[in-house]
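Contributing new complexes? Match this layout with calcium ion.
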Amino acid sequence: MAEALEHRSWLLPDDAPVRRHRLRALSRLGKVSLSFVLIHLLVTLLFTVSGYRFKAAADDALLGTRLSAIVQALPVVIGDDYLGELLGDGPFDEPRYQAMLQRLDGYAKKAGVDSIYVLTQRGGHTLFVMDSANTAEIASGRYGQHLGHYDSAPPELNEVFAQRRSRFVEYSDQFGDFRSLFLPIRGPHGSQLVLGADVSLEAIKAERRACLLLFLGIGLTTFVLGLLVIASRELRISELAFEDPLTGLPNRTRFIMDVNRAIAAGHRPLSGLTVAIFDICDVKRINALYGYGDGNLLLQGVARRLAAVLGEGELLARLPSDGFALLLRCDQDICLARLARTLDKPFRLGGQHAVMVKARLGLARYPIHGRSVQDLLCYAEVALDAASHQAVSHVFYDPELEQRRLQSMALLDDFDQAIEAGELRVFLQPKARLSDGHIGAAEALVRWEHPRLGLIAPGVFLPIIEDNGRICALSLWLLRECMQLSRACDLRISVNLSVQDLESPTFPTQVQALLAQTGADAAQLCLEITESSAMRNPEQALVTLTQLRQLGFSLAIDDFGTGYSSLAYLSRLPVDELKIDRSFITQLHQPEQQEIVRAIIQLGLIMNLRLVAEGVEDRQVCTLLASFGCHEVQGYVIARPMPAQVFLTWLAVRAGHWTPDALADGARSTA
Ligand code: C2E
Ligand code: CA
Ligand code: CA
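Output block (do not edit by hand):
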């Protein structure tokens, strides 16, 4: 069993690897996100630092330009005459001088600097010529006096006097800490002057602090916004990894994680825990009829209804394809009734189509069927397969189902070489005309003579090879055999086709090639198609059947009455024969069944078809069918299917006729 489970690639071996896998996935996601955050932090830091430095450098440049403009305008503001007076030997007018210093101070403040001044050097000392001062400074005498010594002059000032080259300097003196521009000029009376302007370093530092704060603010905001973007991206990634985008439901990965967590947490009652796979049968049909938009609307509608009936602690997830996974916690009958109710009203799709849908359920119980959600899902799927094959609404997992699945897989492997190894056998079952007992036709029924298992009936192996898409090879083999047989006898031989033959676009061409190879007459062969296979893809079936009809084959609708086909559609098919299903014939002793069969026969007669009743087992039924107007009968009443060669001998002995006297022989013939 464990080996079988490993076949399913989507299964993880047990709970621990799921968690490991998830942790690995999360840590990978975490690493990527951490890298994003670090890169983002680095970029933000770089941006903040370089932005700040750029702004500080620009501010410095602006300050330099301002200082230099102010200093260069100083001689004009003071006036050359007044400067000459201050440096000459004439009388000195102190009040006028102080008024001039105040004017200079007003000019300095307007120009955005702290002070402006004119200095000169005499006898190795630096002297104030003028030094801007406000009223308070003048009153307190805290300013550079006319030709007073500037004792705390910075050493750079001497260099400016000596080199006669302007320069920016940061210095401290008795008046404070400054950034200044010293500009040397030639003054009146051959004097050497240095014009200067100061900005307090405190003001510059305050401006820098404001600039730094601004950039830190911008950097922080950018960083937080970036984090939000990264977080929302991560949220979206985890949504995509664990959520079905169409319905918004958790996906299978998430379902496995959640159910494992619920099991590990030991939520009560664990005994009623059931994993179900809910498969909608009609989505493909809706897609084909109305388009994918409506198919999606249907899935969304089903998801909404299922979500609405979920009970406490129950879970719902969308599976790939047309299915949903459910974790149910209640008593099985209540659950099934609840789920059945969800679908008992039609779904309204776009374009106002209202459709009813059918669903199938596969169910597996915890812990009797499996202890991990992976096992339970796998078993629920096995049960769902069984529900589809049995055409029932739900199936609970049964270990025998798994056994049968394994046997099917083994049989499928063996079938790969069955045709080439000559293990298939053609059996024939006669059809007799009711009016005169003439046997002019037979149905070919395949058997597989398995080297180990003996003779296997088609009902055992055909569904398996049909499910795996390998039936066309068998149909072509059987057709070749029957074409060759038809050349050796004067019989109409019926061959059963599968729905896959009808849906294969190359099938008619392959059959045509067989006709050419065997030299058979297509008119001697009748192809039987069940009503349900003709209805699965009606348009394609019509195309293929028309092509086969054009090749000269006659066509029969098999198992008529079981496929709910529309009469309008059937009347468009180029068929010649209607085979009334055995289920009607076996119950022909019931009056209402007689009415149904009579109606079918009348309908067939109106449509000008040959009517054949199959599964006829007794003579009274033959009499009844003859009175209804049925043309031919096939069944144990005449003979069971026999190996082709046995059949030919059987037919020769009876000279192609079946009479009621032959009943005893027919009933003794065995398959
Ligand atoms: P079918 O085409 O409806 O074939 C008639 C089935 O009813 C045959 O079963 C036959 O043995 C059985 N039968 C005939 N008369 C009686 C009767 O009086 N009473 C009862 N109880 N049964 C009767 P078989 O041979 O097992 O085939 C089963 C089905 O397998 C066939 O049903 C057909 O659908 C399919 N099948 C058989 N051979 C082939 C084949 O070569 N190709 C395809 N595609 N399907 C085949
Ligand atoms: Ca048949
Ligand atoms: Ca049939």
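Reviewers usually confirm one structural detail per submission. For this one: Residues 443, 496, 528, 558 surround calcium ion (ligand 2) (CB under 6 Å).
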